[in-house]
Design a protein that fits this description.
The chain contains 13 helices and twelve strands. It has 280 residues and is an alpha/beta fold. Strands 8-7-6-11-9-12-10 form a seven-stranded parallel β-sheet. It has a five-stranded mixed β-sheet with strand order 1-4-3-5-2. Strand 6, helix 7 and strand 7 form a beta-alpha-beta unit.
């Protein structure tokens, strides 16, 4: 294969995307259409390809060319495939590669909020969740536990950051998502009204005197429900809670008052997901 290129120069500019560009540089806020992201491991790369993402180059352990990355290479066409031994790649990237494969890809254009919510009945809304590990974990739970879409406020960590993709196991490519408002502008509180205008009841997850447990029958009976989760520590904005139809909580024991936002999302999605809504 003529597109297989063995790495001999660590400073080759073609490798900047893997070794030297920050997440902010990959995002390319000034020219978003030129933005890139990194998918890691053959399974995650395959999910990105299934979603229509366009590859730019691959970085592999040499032994994987005819091994577990063989099918990925074939699917990616005639793009450059950079290879090196495991020890060399670890030195280049600065960390142990997950199953020895990375793929640089173009960032796909984001759909509109209305497009991804058109046929949705259960959506997750993340407000200012800035930890990429939490974002990735929430996406994995949303995909597994029957959420139809995920919306994020502009201050959230981008779901296509490398760590978020890795933690999500590639489910960021399987569940529809987009940013509320303009990703690069302040989150407009009017987006709660925007959800109402699309027929959604809104449920803010927050510790409040007037909150109801997530197994409240009225919640399950709602045809269209948006579950809104806030960042660690600060939680949701007071104005967001005030604008929502419900304030909800997970019943706790042993004096514990709350869960990590990723864990809380899994519990809420399991209880309130579309499959449970359909049960008699």
């Amino acid at each position: 294969m003529s597109n297989i290129i063995e790495i001999t120069d660590f400073m080759a500019p073609e490798l900047d995307v893997y070794a030297r560009l920050s997440e902010a540089q990959l995002l390319n806020r000034h020219e978003p259409h030129k933005g890139l992201f990194i998918a890691e491991s053959p399974k995650v790369i395959a999910r990105a390809l299934d979603a229509g993402c366009i590859p730019v180059s691959l970085l592999l352990e040499t032994k994987h060319i005819h091994g577990q990355a063989k099918d990925i290479i074939a699917r990616c066409g005639n793009i450059p495939v950079y290879t090196a031994a495991f020890k060399v790649l670890t030195q280049l990237t600065g960390f142990k590669l997950t199953r020895g494969a990375l793929c640089a890809m173009h960032r796909p254009p984001l759909p509109t909020v209305e497009d991804i919510c058109a046929n949705a009945h259960r959506i997750a809304v993340l407000e200012n969740v800035m930890n990429p590990t939490n974002v990735g974990a929430i996406f994995r739970s949303a995909a597994a536990l029957d959420m139809d879409a995920v919306l994020l406020t502009p201050a959230c960590s981008n779901p296509l950051y490398r760590r978020a993709i890795r933690v999500s196991m590639g489910t960021v490519f399987q569940i529809p998502w987009t940013f509320l408002g303009d990703e690069y502008l302040k989150y407009p509180q009017t987006d709660i009204q925007r959800l109402h205008n699309m027929g959604f009841k809104t449920a803010a997850m927050a510790l409040s005197a007037d909150s109801v447990p997530i197994d409240d029958e009225a919640l399950l009976s709602e045809d269209k429900l948006a579950i809104i989760l806030g960042t660690e520590g600060d939680g949701l904005e007071h104005s967001t809670i005030a604008d929502c139809d419900y304030t909800i909580r997970i019943p706790m024991s042993h004096g514990v008052d709350s869960l990590n936002v990723a864990a809380a999302s899994a519990v809420a999605f399991w209880q309130l997901g579309s499959l449970n809504r359909q049960k008699p």
